Amino acid sequence: MTAEELIQETLDKLGLDIDKDLKTCIIEDMQEFAKFHIEAALKAASEDPKIIIVTPRKDKYEPWGISEVNKDAILNAYPLDNIK
User: Fold this and answer.
1) What is the pTM of this model?
2) d(CA 31, CA 19)
3) How many C-beta atoms lie closer than 10 Å to residue 77's C-beta?
């Protein structure tokens, strides 16, 4: 859903019609707000990616092990409580 779609859906639910310039301003502010938090979330996730080293398995030749990104660490790197 885009910012414009969300605003229009909310206005429709409330039965409101607002000035086109005001609507554009609200949409642009919503987009800037989203960009700010997305950039902060990506920065937080990139600063401590939490690589997991899986040790070699005895039944399979993997002398160096396998490294995986800890997806939970990425998903939890930026708490949703930061969005207010």
Assistant:
1) 0.68
2) 19
3) 19
